[in-house]
Amino acid sequence: MTPLKTAAALLALAAPTALYAAHGPDVFQEPRGAAPAAQDATEPSGPLLAMSIGKPVTLTQGEQQTLRTLVPGLDPALVPPAKVGKLRAILYGQGNDAEKRGRIERLLN
Question: Which of 18, 22, 23, 66 has a CA 20 to 30 Å removed from the CA of 54?
């Protein structure tokens, strides 16, 4: 790394530290009573579905097998497309198999 790049990197790290030291932790928070960020207003409020050319993405073979393992007797082909995204969140989320099984059963019932 050249001396110029090293100096630039040190300055980039020093600026937030100096702000924090001068003004405390409140310098990095939004002012009280401020309007929410513009990006919050543009986010959709309905359920999020994985989309591919306007169609919900179906479960992969591996996801279907995992569902069959977690919930025996469940036919993955009968899962409504609107619930595929939430199922994926459960499958790839935290928790042990028993917790995932319970969340899947609650979602589909």
Answer: 66
